[in-house]
Amino acid sequence: MPPPENPLTPARILEATEDVLRRYGPAKATVVDVARALGVSHGSVYRHFATKAALREAVTERWLDREHDELSAIADGNGPAEDRLRRWLAALFAAKRRKAGDDPELFATFLELARENSGTVARYLTTLLKQLATIVASGVADGEFAARDAAATARALWDATARFHDPMYASEWADPEIDADFTEVCELLLRGLRA
Amino acid sequence: MPPPENPLTPARILEATEDVLRRYGPAKATVVDVARALGVSHGSVYRHFATKAALREAVTERWLDREHDELSAIADGNGPAEDRLRRWLAALFAAKRRKAGDDPELFATFLELARENSGTVARYLTTLLKQLATIVASGVADGEFAARDAAATARALWDATARFHDPMYASEWADPEIDADFTEVCELLLRGLRA
């Protein structure tokens, strides 16, 4: 028997799951909906993802990963650390706003996972904190920044910008003053970092 | 007819409401429970507070006001602005933690009101931002701090310390690392303020 033209891969399942989540929302979407969209049995889906929770984690991870690439390019780039940090924080805020506005159903899934303290969200946080620490450490190495401990400073930068990346604040991201508030916080933090 | 020995005042109603909220929680407590605790009809309670929502706002306001006094004494006190700002932020965080831990039912009421964007919570925020701006402005006047706009800087300090006062983060306030995280954020902000 020849292999099917379009074999059922994890990537295809995740793509269909994103569509189903967008259409039905995280509360109503089921594995049966995903299987139906793919024209396969739900057993076939379960062969790749053992539970509905595992599938939901994987789809969120894939969605968050797209954001990492842009941010990691900034973190690992050249130029003054202050400029990279400013661009990194602005890119993170822009990505979150875009997701909350353009992709509200997947954003709601992410918010639910964040509330459940899932492994996916913990890994995502670890990745972003490492990127922040890379920028801080390079600024210290170049004599631009003063910081005893790059990891602790990265955590402080993350905490201090929570209003501009924590999904709990998404409803405030359309406020007309939010951009000025963001700039004010960033500039205060950058002044605090300068050597 | 002589006046009753214990006239029904707003203060007595608010005290009874606090007790009722502590006992039944914000979801179950009713105006009838408050009236019963006072030995009066619910009509008597409604003569002082027109709706259940008005009563709930008033009890939250009274509860938040107790916190203002301690903080305003620090804001209006003497000594270096840096020291006052550090103490003010620490006192706010301590008060929030105490309330979340010791008074979870009233804290839940406050959290509900905060989500509804109530007038009480907006007034509370305005009062606290004014206190922060007072400290910043006095630091600028003494040549300790550099800040173009004390009100905008106060807002930035408030936003940057959200993890340590926003009730949405209450579940993290028992984490063993939270005190170190708080200190790291405060010291970064204070370095950013220095002239």
From TrEMBL, chains A, B:
Pfam family, one: TetR_N
Keywords: DNA-binding, Transcription, Transcription regulation
Coiled-coil ranges per UniProt: none
Domain of life the protein comes from: Bacteria
PROSITE patterns linked: HTH_TETR_1 (PS01081), HTH_TETR_2 (PS50977)
Keyword Signal: no
SUPFAM superfamilies hit by this protein: Homeodomain-like (SSF46689), Tetracyclin repressor-like, C-terminal domain (SSF48498)
DNA-binding region: 30-49
Ranges of residues in domain HTH tetR-type: 7-67
Protein name: TetR family transcriptional regulator
